[in-house]
């Protein structure tokens, strides 16, 4: 085999690999739902709502939504990461998110094969969706999402299996207060990271939070 053939073969293999990876990442539910597959939803922070996928915060820098989507995606599951429109009411999007989860359940996907991940406003929406669905088998990952919106809604509870992650330099801290009022929660794990980046720790796909979150998803 000559150099050109080897190079062409390598490029073709890389193309196939990238295509396979691309087929695990969607902005909405795929048309064809595989009942035996795992599905993960990622809900971004408030700053990304609108048309810009890489907005700049004056204190915390760039929120790289595309990079987070790519880093969070995995061949072991289908990742759905929707770009929410600007100004959408939390209650409205909660209904949308919950309805998509119900479509998966109606299509035969096992509840234990569904995970909802959310950061900041997206974390609050994930908690609200958990309260709406009231399903003990679904998995939820909350990234710095237990803040004002959830504190103002004392009746909101978490269900299922929950992982909470927060940054020690951030004003948004533990989800213990939500856990305490969630009588139907099945399991709760929480850990903190210490990057010194405050809320911006989750603006980029940093290994400190991304690696353990992906590991948790793959094992649930």
Can you walk through the features of this model?
There is one protein chain. By secondary structure, this protein is an alpha/beta fold. The protein has one domain (38-219): Rossmann fold (3-Layer(aba) Sandwich). 36% of the residues lie in helices and 19% in strands. The chain contains 7 helices and 9 strands; from the N terminus they run αββββαβαβαβαβαβα. It has helices spanning 3-22, 65-72, 90-106, 121-133, 148-151, 176-181, 207-218, and strands at residues 25-26, 39-43, 56-57, 61-62, 78-80, 114-119, 139-143, 160-167, 185-193. The chain has a 7-stranded parallel beta sheet with strand order 1-5-2-6-7-8-9, sandwiched between helices. A two-stranded antiparallel sheet has the order 3-4. Strand 3 and strand 4 (61-62) form a beta hairpin. The protein starts with a helix and ends with a helix. Mean pLDDT is 92; it is low at 1-22. Residues 94-172 form the Phospholipase/carboxylesterase/thioesterase domain. InterPro entries: AB_hydrolase_fold (IPR029058), PLipase/COase/thioEstase (IPR003140).
